[in-house]
Amino acid sequence: MKDLKNLCLKNKKYIIFDMDGTLIDSIGVWNRTDQRLIEEYAGVSVDLNDVQIMRDNFLHSNQDSDIYLAFCEYLINKYEFKNVTPKELLERRWKISGEVLEKETDFKPNVAELVRRLKELGFVLVLATMTTQVQLDIYSKRNMKMLEKMNIAEVFDLITRKEDVKNKKPDPEIYNKVMTYYNAKPSECLIFEDSYTGVLASKNAGIEVVNIYDKYADIDRDKINALTDYSFKEYKEFIALIDDLY
Length: 246
Description:
CATH architecture of the largest domain: 3-Layer(aba) Sandwich
Distance between the termini: 24 Å
CATH topology of the largest domain: Rossmann fold
Number of domains: 2
Number of strands: 6
Strand content: 5-15%
Radius of gyration: 18 Å
């Protein structure tokens, strides 16, 4: 891993951000959502950390085209849910998470300031996320905490979502799609990611990646540190770097 101070932005044109865990504190939302589902349908109380490990293991090892529907089927089988189909469970999952995403989710500190600075400097800003359009609509239309700071639908030049790709990270499809859209070279791009799968997807696309710390990725911290090009804990560190360069 290189020192962040050695990052050269002069040859970069496209700054690409992941969403969940990178721009926003949202991973905990899914832990609480899945915990509630298990309690609701199985009457079992599962530790939040165990919920995350269980879900991460499933997501890492499955390539289903509708990964969230497949995960719901997995929950039904694992915890022996009764009288509910995967589709019905998925709808319930979206309802629970939607309430939390709308009222509790927020940007990580200094995200809006960094995005505005990068835009002022002339970088093309891209959101490349496995988040669905349903969730993005919550963030850009109904979440007042986020809208008070910035509207993602307005500040990003391109938004690529789960619906736009067939393969999930660590497959590099979503980043390759961005490069194809702009006819960009990997050397012209820089990616911000929080998770191991995201960092791996970036490297698989041949693009330099900056890892922003997220506590929910600590389980993979050693693998992230071994793979990422640069890392930092808070966005104010990257803003300070920009202040020094420009």
